[in-house]
Amino acid sequence: MKKVLALLLAIGLMLGLSPALAEGKVFSFGGAMDDMDLIDVHKATSSGVLQGGIMVCEPLLALQPDGTLKPQLLAEMPTVSEDGKVFTCKLREDVYFHDGTQLTSKDVYFTLHRIFDPATANVNAWLCDMILGGQDMLDGKATELAGVTIQDDFNFTIELDYPYAPFNYILSCPQMLIYPQDACTAAGDTWGIDSFVGTGPFVFDTFVAKDSLHLVANENYYEGRPQIDEVYLYNLDRGTALMEFEAGSLDLVNMDPTYVKGYQEGEFAKNLVMSDLRGIIALNLNVAMPPLDNVKVREAVAHAVDQKAIVDSYLQGNGTAANSLITPSVAGYTDRPSFYNPEKAKALLAEAGYPDGIKLVNYVSETSSIAGIPVVLQEQLKASGIELEVNRVDSATYVSMRKEGSVQCPLLTWYADMPDPDNFTYTFFQSGNSKFFSSNWNDSLTDELLAKGRAMPAGEERTEVYKQIDQRLVAEEFVTVPLYNPVTYYLKSDKVEGIFFDGSMFHLDDAFFVE
Amino acid sequence: MSIKANANVQDAAYTSFYHDAFVRLKRDKIAIACLVFIVLLILVAIFAPLIAPYPEGFQDTSAILAGPSSKHWLGTDEFGRDILTRIIYGSRISLSVGLIAEAIAVTIGVFLGALAGYYGGKIDAVISRIIEIFASFPHILFAIVIMFVLGTGVINVFLAIGFVGWTGIARIIRAQVMQLKEKEFVEAARASGGSDLKIILRHLIPNCLSTIIVVVTMAIPSDIMYEASLSFLGLGVQPPVSSWGEMISMARKYLRTNPTYSVFPGIALVLTVLAFNLLGDALRDALDPKLKNL
Amino acid sequence: MLKFTLRRLYQTIIVLLGVTLVTFTMVNVVPGDPVAVMLQKKADDATINRIRDQMGLNDPLPAQYFRFLTNAVTGDFGNSYFQKKPVMELILRAFSVTGTLAVLVLAFAITLGVLMGTLAAVFRGKWVDRVIMMISTLGMAAPSFWLAIILQLIFGLTLKWLPISGLRQPSAYIMPSVALGMIYAASLARLTRTNILDAMNQDYIRTARSKGVGEFFVVAKHAFKNAGIPILTYLGTLIKSILGGSVLVETIFSINGLGKLLVEAIMKRDIPIIQGCTVYIAAVFVIANLLIDLTYGLFDPRIRVAGPAKR
Q1: What is the pTM of this model?
Q2: Which one in A98, A170, B286, C21 has a CA-CA gap of 20 to 30 Å to B181?
Q3: Which of A45, A120, A191, A417 should we substitute to test contact with C (largest number of C Cβ atoms within 10 Å)?
Q4: Interface predicted TM-score of the whole assembly (ipTM), two decimals
Q5: In what order do the strands lie in the sheet containing A480-485?
Q6: Of the candidates C38, C115, C267, which has its C-beta nearest A394's C-beta?
Q7: At the topology level of CATH, where does C87-263 sit?
Q8: Taking a C-beta distance cutoff of 8 angstroms, is the pair C163, C169 a contact?
């Protein structure tokens, strides 16, 4: 018995002590990227897929650390026509794809065409469906994209259906990476699985779905070869990824805020980096489901929620209490005090005809990182005579229910695609979208303001419009109760510097190993 | 007349059989210890609101993920809820899962097993195939799908586990009924014109009772584990209800902050499963030594 | 023998057909739509319907089932909705992981279980027996996911002897195998002990012993042969549990095995993978049982034809 144990132990030691020693500057990045099924950004919405995509391919414009845009594949920022509908663009002439072909206008047309081609089954087309002719293609009414016109190899224009002020931001989204026409067409169904070609700092090497992505440095990158030789992206269970980091086998790991307390002190405190997520967590109140059709009841709910307590207790300070639907760094944000007042909440309920309180039903996806929030609310709302039933369901069931508009008070979890107030408002409360997010808000004044804001150029006047929208939704009609602005954390090894986190994606272009 | 006498003889035989078994069981010190533990656990579950230091959902916002202290003997979880309180309330789930899920499994399993064993032939072939289909199905898939269709919640967890676990007992009962139906007392009952249903319900199933008791006791631990697994996958009980599996699953996130959080519900789970395992062993030895290979 | 094999084969096909029908019914009564999952962030009914049309999900159900069956006969289970690869390829890849792991778990469980059980039986009543029985009782009561976390903490993080996750080195197989195999090793130990004790009370072993044959040889030669059948039966149950129920441990160790493939597919309603996996797991299970039935003959010629009642 002893001998067997000793033998097992010896074998274990032998195998365990001989990890493959990394050659060169290999960067390992791990985290929960459960949806890393492929890395074609047209076919998935999850951050794991997009993260893989942006390391190989690039968008026309890029977000900078200060939140402004810079041209990436374009030679300069697009010029916009007077009516705000036509964007004239000029490509850089020194950009080559990893297979050696030069980037030209036809690749841009090809990519945008592929986005709207029903055969692609693109899941992100909604983001840019203001491009003229895009919707017609999706509907099968057209086979060519009317809004994109090629002047020559490096000049093209994009025409929109209606003026859309933040369109430049859309061109910088990770869902809008430019693909090479020849390579992508040749790859067919294996695109983003067995083959993936772009212009970016790293070249696709191997991809194992749900497991790992291996990239190598692009020797001929037009902005200079990255200093890292290889990148591994691993999909790991959240807790496991952190342990791997502690054991020294990962250089970068993203972290759910729930884990952060264990790392704020001690050995790894110096590796912990906090970053704003540019998002909002809110409680939507479904106006189609009684008693929430009564504005007094909605007002009562708004008065029953203590944002500060959520942040201070459950979140342990990892987040900022929010009282505006729009995040502070984005135009249109209003700094208003919390409504929290349980006595007033009870009075409002009594006024609305519910002196004995009400019962509300919440559904939340069990995989959601904020699945704990309804539990906190459940206890908080009790004090105001509101009983909150919490149902954790699997995410597919949740999405189906929410899409039907049949969740009474769903949590709104939004990590913005771009720092524009339109992305925080139109997306959920425009009457055509509100059912999908289960608020069922259908208000002509809101719609009117949203349409107005979309078409206006950035500036004071536009900010004012979004303040009005925020006021209407949060403080007059109480359709949504903002809870907090989330933050995220990541652990970064001492060995690397120069990583840029843009609020949703990591950029390793300028990352380097400290000697 | 003769049948009645026969039945009386049978009854007498049952009584002395169970009496003997009880005597045998009483001699087993470990079994008695386990029995005492289980009875205590049942009392804890019933009187949870009286015993627990806090209400089930109470959140002490000043003590998030705190270690053991005089205020919270076993510490608190990520919401500031008292872990001892949650373990006490969690015993309700673990125990009822054993009882209710097994009640469902036994009802289906005994019914189908007895039918197959008694009639044999085509009916047996059909039922046996059904048993095989369900037995060769990935259990976890089945349980998850039931949870999806019915929606999450305590009762549905019981149903899911019950519907998953009936094939084992169906097989055992089928084999036993097949043997029993050749016995004289069954022949006698049939000769005196007893209907099939009556024979199955009055004669065959009672004779399988000791087997059923043993199988149920031995299945309870795996049911408790199933509930823990489902809760671990996030498909179990709904807040603020607590379950040991859900606690272990959540505690996994906080291993660094509050390591004892995962230890205590784990110990509760291991002890309970242990008690049922050992009691099941002892019951089997006392009631039905033939089943030792379970 | 041939007739028995043929009959079992026929039954196997019926069972597999039944499994496909049950699976198909299940995935179609479950709420949730794979397309809605794909479009999670934002979608409207028109988009969802368009993509459903393209994937053939709007066809009548009987037509879908028939299409699935006719393709499945040729080994084609379609393409995964999310990974966009042939299901068969994904299953085989996951199976190569789960299969390797299963072999290791079996090796671990059988070696440790039978060894401990035999030792306990030989030293019955002595302290060796008590210690082994205590360990195995505890082993049976500890849930594998809990054990996995504890192992990871001790051997991966604190002692740094073994890799914490993945299966990128051979040594990485040790912790998952132990976490999964402990409960089986424990039950096998108990099973072996009881059966050997039982066999040792049989007349012919008493005879062997009275002839002065050493205790060890008695156990090795005679008792083992008799204890073999229940152990073999147990293996059938064990194989299925290893193949179907390891999703928790696979998740904890970030292993892309069959359990994780199946459960993730259910969560996303990736219907082709769900169907492929269930058929595959059921087939492996049924075939394993078939082989075990046939192997009984090696241990006991009397039950070569009928096969004992299984659990």
Answers
A1: 0.82
A2: B286
A3: A45
A4: 0.77
A5: A320-321, A480-485, A279-284, A411-415
A6: C267
A7: MetI-like fold (1.10.3720)
A8: yes
